[in-house]
Design a protein that fits this description.
This is DNA repair protein. InterPro entries: DUF6388. This protein is about 75% helix and about 0% strand. By secondary structure, it is an all-alpha fold. It folds into 2 domains: about 1-70, no CATH class; about 75-109, no CATH class. Helix 1 crosses helix 5 and helix 5 (about 65-70) runs antiparallel to helix 6 (about 75-95). The longest helix has 19 residues, at about 40-60.
Length: about 110
């Protein structure tokens, strides 16, 4: 059960709410930069927001979907349960043994 689009949108909102300086920066982007990329100002802003979100996840040593779960889970236990569930799904899709996968990604099974 990977993070849903709704969860991701909620996580982005919370992420931005917790970073007023980032919101200010995103609200004052140069529209010529968007135009140069062939994007609307909104598309360009969204792209910068997603880049900041991914960078924060990386800074914390997380995948972006883990940061999404972290920002939207009701409790720490809820986050850990959802995180393990997704990692199990990824291990299955990769055809990897669960303990091998845990060892590779430093996960406590």
């Amino acid at each position: 059960m990977a993070a849903s689009e709704l969860q991701h949108e909620q996580a982005l909102k919370r992420f931005l709410d917790e970073r007023p300086e980032l919101r200010h920066e995103l609200d004052h982007l140069n529209p010529l930069l968007a135009q140069a990329k062939g994007e609307t100002a909104a598309q360009y802003r969204d792209e910068r927001l997603h880049e900041a979100f991914e960078a924060e996840a990386e800074r914390q040593g997380l995948f972006a979907w883990e940061l999404t779960l972290q920002l939207t889970a009701a409790t720490t236990q809820d986050y850990e349960a959802q995180r393990l569930e997704v990692h199990r799904e990824v291990a299955e899709m990769a055809g990897m043994d669960w303990l091998e996968y845990c060892d590779l990604y430093g996960i406590e099974p």
